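In the current project phase, work has continued on tokenised descriptions of protein folds. One protein thus recorded appears below exactly as we store it.

——
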Amino acid sequence: MRNKLVYDLPLRLFHWVFATLFVMAFLIAKTVDDNLVIFSYHMLAGLLLGFVVLLRIVWGFVGPKHSRFSGFVLHPRELVLYFVGIFSGDKRKWSGHNPASSWASLLMFVLALGLGLTGYLMAKGQKETFEDIHELLSNGFLVVVLMHIAGLILHVFRHQDKIIFSMIDGAKEGIPSNETIQSSRPLIAVLFVVIAVTFAFHLANNFTSQSRTLNLFGTQLQLGENEENEGYEEGETSGKGEGDGEKDKNDKNDKSDND
């Protein structure tokens, strides 16, 4: 019976917010032309993703045992033994993150922060410098996510362990009592939601869709091409050309009359 609480509510909320923001940002980036306003929401989602990762990093130092980075199993030998155990039928259970999910989580945090930083620098006017790096990080993120999902599915079928539901109710089965947590930290979960939503509102309230600009705490970011200004500049150029043509025509007529 899955009645051993191991994952607190803030961790579980972060997990699903993190996954949702990545999927949103990735799908928009891959399916929407970057000259459309909706593409800017890919960048807004990326900034929010980076922000919640920073919150998760804080929780990784002050949260309960299975939320802390000190609880991650990152020794390479343990990772090798874990994969060997999957194929050999080893039934060992991990109270918190197993070696594979520990490495996957760490890599995704690093990649998310890298994407947020390079996206920020691109919006600051250094698009050509960081665009390829941003694309590489994005594809690397997708690979890690797909491997993580495949690993979870393999773990479930190989060990008959409903580990996927652990990020929903926070519980596992067959875990020693001394490895459980006493509280799911609901108040911290509420605080996490309030902080994340506040930052999301800041992004929304300071984003101007017409110019596709974002005022991020006093820093002006360009989240795509300014179509309004481009149209104005093209019209201005076109109008100037027509005026010049009309002027040339009048000059020719005046010259003809003088002759």
Q: What stands out?
A: Residues 227-259 form one domain. The chain has two domains: 4-225, 227-259. Residues 99-159 form the longest helix (61 residues). Residues 72 and 102 are 5 Å apart (CA to CA).
